[in-house]
Design a protein that fits this description.
42% helix, globular, 249 residues, Rossmann fold, seven-stranded parallel sheet, alpha/beta
């Protein structure tokens, strides 16, 4: 039985990934900050299939302590799903809070890189898979996206760089780049404004966490000689905006 480690498994795509992988016969190491949600996941899916690791991905000491306590049955990690991420704030760059920018970078870039570096030896030994959750914001800028888009562009390029460096090791690397997915993303981004979140997704028929989880599972289930370098996914109702033009600006 294979084991996957999923970061940010307390909601949205990460939680859906945990369910999808267990349903497909995998063991899951589920990480996140909210212990109650991880325990609920264990209660739903079984302690023999899900091991909870409670830590903030930005806290390397807490992360290392939690991973050191992983039971032997879960110790061989075959797949890393770097899902944990966020956008803090929706302001224009010139109005943004520097702390929001730093929080976004520390979560989406620094923590992802740090965990990947820690697990690389084990993933190489097992000829495993790394799935990094990027975003269409890595390619298509939008007003207020500034640092968030920059971090996701980093994730995409880092994935390609890993793919190049890991040539010959048997390790596969994929960047998944979703468009609009209805999760807690906007609720968190707006500081807990549920109305703003509901407004964004109203009438759109957006992607769901389960949609992306099934894509991650499909990639993990491919033959070991096949690598999906990057995959961009959007709901049908979302497409590309035109260029903006400022008059007399």
């Amino acid at each position: 039985m294979k084991t996957v480690l999923v970061t940010g498994a307390t909601a949205g795509i990460g939680e859906a990934c945990a369910r999808a992988f267990v349903r497909s016969g995998w063991r899951v190491i589920a990480t996140g900050r909210r212990a109650d949600r991880l325990e609920a996941l264990v209660g739903e899916l079984g302690a023999d299939r899900v091991h909870p690791c409670v830590f903030d991905v930005r806290d390397e000491a807490a992360r290392d302590a939690a991973l050191a306590a992983v039971p032997a049955a879960f110790a061989g990690i075959d797949c890393l799903v770097n899902n944990a991420g966020l956008a803090a704030g929706t302001s224009l760059a010139q109005q943004a809070r520097l702390d929001d920018w730093k929080t976004t970078i520390e979560t989406n870039v620094t923590a992802l890189v740090s965990l990947t570096h820690k697990l690389l030896p084990a993933l190489i030994a097992r000829k495993g898979l790394i799935v990094n959750l990027s975003s269409v914001a890595a390619t298509y800028p939008y007003t207020g996206g500034n640092v968030y888009g920059g971090t996701k562009a980093f994730v995409r390029q880092f994935s390609l760089g890993l793919r190049s460096d890991l040539s010959g090791t048997g390790v596969r690397v994929t960047s998944i780049e979703p468009g609009m997915v209805e999760t807690e993303f906007t609720f968190v981004r707006t500081g807990g404004d549920q109305e703003a979140s509901d407004r964004l997704y109203a009438g759109v028929n957006p992607l769901t966490g389960a949609d992306i989880a099934e894509t991650v599972l499909w990639i993990a289930s491919l033959p070991p000689h096949m690598n999906i370098n990057a995959i961009e996914i959007m709901p049908v109702n979302q497409s590309f905006a035109g260029f903006q033009v400022a008059r007399n600006g």
